[in-house]
Every structure is written in C-alpha cells, then in structure tokens.
Specification:
The protein has 226 residues and is mostly helical. The protein has one domain. 65% of the residues lie in helices and 4% in strands. The chain has a two-stranded antiparallel ribbon with strand order 1-2. Helix 2 runs antiparallel to helix 3, helix 3 (59-89) packs across helix 6 and helix 6 packs antiparallel against helix 8. The radius of gyration is 21 Å and the shape is globular. The two termini are 28 Å apart.
Amino acid sequence: MEAPLNDKSRGRQIYGSPSALKKAKADKKFSYVLALARAINALNSAHSLMMSAANRNTPEAMRDRMNGNFFVSGILYETLKLIRAMSGVFRDDISFETSFRLVLKDTSALALEKMHLKSARHGGVFHFAPDRFAEAIAKTPMTECVFTSSGPGEKRGSVHYEFADLITAEMMVGKRIDDEALVNEMFVRMHDLVQKITEHSENFIADQLNVWGFEVRASQSVSDHA
C-alpha cells in the first residue's frame, strides 16, 4: 500500500481491485460501510448548500441556508439510526468501538436527536405531512406572515416560500424560533455532531477498506480528464 488510507496529505483515490472488491462483497459488513459512505455524501452536500449561501441575504440565499440546515438535521437523524443498526454487526470492532460507539453514548447528541432532529425529519424535511403542518400552524405565535419572497427579476427557482420554512423551523426548534439561546444551542450541537460523525466516518471507512485490501493511489488531476 502506498500510504495509509486516511492520509490527507495529497489528492488520492481508494481503489478496489477485482480481488479486493470480491472480498468486500462477500462480507456482510460491506453494505453497512456503503450505506454509511452514502450518508456522509448526503451530509457533506447539505452542509455545502448551507455554507454556499453564507453572508448573502437574498431570498434565494435565505432559502438555501434554511434548507441546508433542515437537510443536515434530517440526514443526521437517519445517520444515527444507521449507526445503531451497525452496532451489532461491528461489535468488538476496535475502529467502531472507539468512534461510533462513543457517539451513541454522547448525551448531547442523544438530546439533540430527541428534541430537534426527529420532529423536523418527520414533519417537514423528508416527509411533507399536512397533519404535522396543521399542528405547527395551530401552535405558532406568528400573527402575520410573508408567505413568499423573491429578488428582483423573474429568475425561475429563485422564490422562497418563507412561511413554510419558518413553520418547519418551529417544528425543529420545538418552540418559538425567536428563542435565541435555544436556537444557538441547537446549532452548536448540530455542528459538533456533524464534525464528530464525518471525522469518525473517514477513519472508520478507511479501516474497513484496508481490511479488504483496497489500496491508495494518486488521484488524476482535472487536466488529465480534459
């Protein structure tokens, strides 16, 4: 092997030769590793959407920031479910026990999941349930609303259905979204959990691929594909 699989010092690919991929496919753990890799792709993409709209206050940017947060919360909830499903399969695996097992015992992460992630995921992120919106509408303290906002011009897809996102945000927070202390605490916990899971995932996935004989090789540059 040219370098450790988790070496971040250069552009790289982790390559599975026919024999390595055959070995991985024969192991029931491989499907869990693949599912985790997919979850991390989704989590990183949602986070990128959120960050791409930072420092801009157009309706389109506000929409992307809010929905980036919603997607992160929903994906975190699903990722925690996956990690629980992995706990039996990877029991006594040192890489799992020293990373994800600790996440499952993290009281801050568990509180975030119970108080914020579940309600947002089930109500307005991956499921668009009218009954959940009806409950939220009945509880909201808002007495007026801007339902839709858009910037100058008529660019297709730039509209922000602002009231729908504010109601979803109240589902996620669990109370008034003007409770600044609670909202800030929620986002700090979310950011911390995203960091923990993504860092643990990179090392854990690398460890598993190493067992199956995957190898590191230098990535081709963009110019090589031009």
